[in-house]
């Protein structure tokens, strides 16, 4: 019988008692939810990862300009920049996270992980991790299952939706999924995986959802890149056995508490933060006019 854990503590205790790896209970849960065997789950995980990689490739090779004009091939500009702030791997990480999210903003095909608004974080991190360490696809897929298990608990204890808990719930959860998956894929133990999740949540706590013009473009795209960087820094810290002090379950509780306390204007309504700046309001009016003109053209065509 599959188990949906309500706490990270339960997940750890189960794995230690049964002598199984972190991904295995999540695999059983997926099998039960879909009424299929393990081969079906692995096959569809592979498809999902292929879509992630394709999104990265598309964002770096094709024209990525959104209808609003706010997205304009940013990923390619980062990827092709001869000046690197740290090293080429960091540059690739940032560019890839941007690329996959730009594909979403330009109405392309992505994997919601856990949401479309955070769809650049896992592709950017896992693609780069695999390239650097020469990991097999199977190990990455196991990491994705670990990430899914992380998201399932966050969803129960807090939220994955920006409309409920702000951007901390979307990009924060995705970064936590990525950080835990990174640590798992590099051979970290359960405590290190969960510590990475805790540290990531601590770094993302309080981030509001304030999309300019109500579009998942600004600041959403660049936040995917910064979240990918945080996921990697948290993984490095956790793998070095530096404690986040606050246990992961308590960090998720804090995520939920902050989300509940956050004003509605900071929850995907475009009524606060960057969306309400002078420039943000100007862009919003421009987008509204474009939408009206498009509707008029459609009416005339009829």
What's the topology here?
Elements: H1 8-18, H2 23-34, H3 38-61, H4 74-80, H5 88-105, H6 121-133, H7 137-157, H8 162-165, H9 167-185, H10 190-204, H11 220-239, H12 248-261, H13 278-301
Helix pairs in contact: 2-7, 3-5, 3-6, 3-7, 4-5, 5-6, 5-11, 6-9, 6-11, 7-9, 9-10, 9-11, 10-11, 10-12
Provide tags for this entry.
302 residues; mainly alpha; 67% helix; 0% strand; Fe-S_L-Ser; 4 iron, 4 sulfur cluster binding; Ser_deHydtase_asu; EC 4.3.1.17; lyase
Short description:
67% of the residues lie in helices and 0% in strands. The protein is mostly helical and 302 residues long.
Provide an overview of this structure.
The chain has helices at 8-18, 23-34, 38-61, 74-80, 88-105, 121-133, 137-157, 162-165, 167-185, 190-204, 220-239, 248-261, 278-301. It has 302 residues and is mainly alpha-helical. The longest helix is centred in the first third of the chain and has 24 residues, at 38-61. It has one domain. α6 packs across α11. The radius of gyration is 19 Å and the shape is globular.
